[in-house]
Amino acid sequence: MDSASLEPSLYTVKAVFILDNDGNRLLSKYYDSELYPSMKEQKNFERNVFNKTHKADNEIAFLEGMTIVYKSSIDLFFYVVGSAQENELMLMSVLNCLFDSLSHILRKNVERRCLLDNMEGVFLVVDEIIDGGVILESDPQQVLQKVNYRLMSEQAYGFVLFDYITGNLDGQTDRSQL
Fold first, then answer.
1. Could you give the CA distance from residue 71 to residue 164 in angstroms, rounded to a whole number?
2. Where are the beta strands (DSSP E) in 112-169?
3. Where is the AP complex mu/sigma subunit domain (predicted)?
4. CB neighbours of 121 closer than 8 A, spacing ≥ 6?
5. 60-63 vs 134-135, strand pairing mode
6. 134 pairs with which residues across the strands?
7. C-alpha 7, offset from chain centre
8. CATH number of this structure's domain 11-158
9. pLDDT for position 128
10. What are the sequence ranges of the domains in the chain?
11. Which of 24, 28, 60, 96 could form a disulfide with 17 if both were Cys (CB 3.0 to 4.6 A apart)?
């Protein structure tokens, strides 16, 4: 093995994906562009992972030189992929954070239909946990706090009108000019 591949790195997560009962992709984010550069290679990898894990009761799998931790819920399968040398506990903490955060956002109804209805929140959760393969957060409460803040601030400021003539918000007239 190359000594450079054994050096510690912040880039611990290679991919995150969520599949349905049939192994169809609902969400996927690959953080290593050299790992599976094309969509076809990614889907083949996901199909292989699904075929190996959908009937197993384990939480960890090793496939194609990757460490894969996974969890299932009703009709969904959640996967976090790291390199073969990656710490399984770190990957599992990311998986648990993802699952717990989504469980809270989906009001404990972690199933395909609810996930698809709330995809913007799902993407926000994934982006708060992992950025470019670097684990940013593994505490679901912190993730939920950041995501709720972002969702609330977008709703609160998304429709605020500013009147450029009077310089007031929501087109209110300036009472001093009356």
1. 52
2. 130-131, 134-135, 162-163, 168-169
3. 12-149
4. 105, 147, 151
5. unpaired
6. 11, 131
7. 26
8. 3.30.450.60
9. 93
10. 11-158
11. 28
Q: What is the DSSP string of 16-53?
A: EEEEETTS-EEEEEES-TTTS-SHHHHHHHHHHHHHHH
User: How far apart are the C-alpha atoms of 91 and 97, rounded to whole Å?
Assistant: 10
- CA 54 centroid distance within chain: 20
**pLDDT tens-digit profile of 10-23?**
788 999 999 999 99
pLDDT (tens digit, 9 = 90+) per residue, 114-144?
A: 889 888 889 999 999 999 999 999 999 999 8
Q: What is the mean pLDDT of the chain?
A: 82
Angle between helices 88-105 and 119-129 (to 10 degrees): 150
Mean pLDDT of 137-152: 81
Could you tell me the two tokens for 158? Answer: 């998304």
| pLDDT above 80 for 149 | no
* pLDDT at res. 166: 53
pTM, entire model: 0.78
Bridge partners of 27, per DSSP, are: 18
Contact 102, 87 (CB under 8 A): no
For residue 96, which of 78, 81, 117 has the smallest C-alpha distance?
A: 78
